[in-house]
Write a structure and sequence with these properties.
10% strand
């Protein structure tokens, strides 16, 4: 597929060496420019090197790999995955000096972690007494939750047990860690804390990864928290600077986990990064936005709208003819394409929206008549209307 890029997008894709911060608004194609830059580097840059591309979900990582499917050796030339999965790989291969001899178990669920803490408390007479004094089993459970949250907060701020001032929390933290290690396990916070500690205490290991990965790209960087940002800083050290962060400070969704858009600004300051504002909204066209405003004057869309788009009012004598005319229009799009759409238009790229299930019933009949496959999804309100 021929990828069309705006002038600003092209500037980002063509960026070679040095730190780069891309502040990208909604619909601006931030994942696209990140992926296209990786494609260009793999295609044009000489030498043996890999690219480290960090995302916040496995789904986002898989989507990025799918966009780079033409590289049959993509898994050898890149590491595309979450920061936690990268830390897991580092620790399983190099973590002996921080107490990880092989690939550990990862305890993810709150219940599993709470069980570890409970066993650690029950094995210690003093901690057992403190827990018992909390009162009823329900109150004890609430206290265990509070303790676990305090331990998580300490780890997310990269604090080791010996750094904790409160003697009770310090003792709980140590006992909890011992319980994890007895199960040959770590929690998600450990992956970050131990990797950061490893890179700081063994800078030659961090340098090994920087020599292996010539370029580092980070998507959705507005969701970084303290531990994640410090892992990246510890990996890069004072010399590595080929790092690109892409994020939108207005779209932070992991604030509950300590994420803060301030790390975009800290990255620009700490790395001396060049900043590019990507504020073109390719998700919304001018005509569609204007039509929406005609219906709801208070409606607003952020960013510039470089795509003019098109809108057409289709009027039928009744709902049945209207459905036929709408599907005729879709048929023409499939046959002729559209200047604003990259690649061929297929049925699986088209959506037909209706306010109620009744409005769509004639469209469904017409789809059956034409033997067009389709997938139907109702909003909760529509489902209740159909009952």
């Amino acid at each position: 597929m021929n990828i069309r890029l705006s002038q600003i997008q092209q500037q980002i894709v063509q960026h070679d060496d040095g730190p780069l911060l891309v502040v990208a608004g909604p619909g601006s194609g931030k994942t696209r420019v990140l992926t296209e830059r990786i494609r260009r580097l793999l295609s044009e840059r000489e030498g043996h090197f890999r690219i480290l591309a960090l995302t916040f979900t496995n789904k986002a990582a898989n989507e990025m790999k799918e966009r780079l499917i033409e590289f049959s050796d993509i898994n050898h030339r890149t590491f595309i995955g979450t920061l936690h999965s990268f830390c897991m790989e580092v620790l399983s291969n190099r973590g002996k000096t921080v107490g990880i001899d092989r690939l550990p178990n990862i305890f993810e669920s709150n219940q599993d972690l709470k069980e570890v803490l409970l066993h650690a408390v029950m094995d210690d007479p003093y901690l057992r007494l403190v827990l018992k004094e909390a009162g009823s089993p329900r109150d004890q459970s609430k206290l265990l939750n509070r303790w676990l949250e305090m331990i998580r907060d300490a780890k997310s701020n990269l604090l080791l047990p010996e750094m904790i001032d409160d003697p009770l929390i310090r003792k709980l933290y140590s006992a909890y860690n011992a319980g994890l290690r007895a199960s040959d396990a770590v929690d998600f916070d450990d992956l970050l804390l131990l990797t950061c500690r490893l890179f700081r205490e063994r800078p030659k290991i961090a340098d090994f990864y920087c020599r292996q990965y010539r370029y580092i790209c980070i998507d959705e960087a507005q969701d970084l928290n303290e531990a994640q940002y410090q892992v990246i800083c510890a990996l890069c050290g004072s010399d590595f600077s080929n790092i690109m962060m892409v994020g939108d400070p207005k779209q932070a969704i992991f604030v509950w986990n300590g994420a803060d858009p301030k790390y975009l600004d800290l990255f620009q300051r700490d790395f001396g990064a060049k900043k590019i504002l990507l504020d073109e909204n390719f998700r919304s066209s001018q005509i569609v936005v204007n039509m929406a405003k005609a219906l709801a004057p208070e409606y607003e869309v952020q960013g510039q709208l470089p795509i003019v788009g098109s809108g057409k009012l289709i009027i039928g004598e009744d709902e049945k003819q209207e459905a036929a005319l709408v599907l005729d229009y879709i048929d023409d799009l499939i046959k002729q394409g559209h200047p604003d759409v990259e690649g061929p238009i297929t049925l699986d790229r088209c959506s037909l929206l209706g306010r109620t299930r009744y409005v769509l019933s004639n469209a469904e009949q017409e789809l059956h008549k034409r033997h067009w496959p389709y997938y139907k999804q109702l909003l909760p309100q529509q489902e209740s209307e159909s009952d």
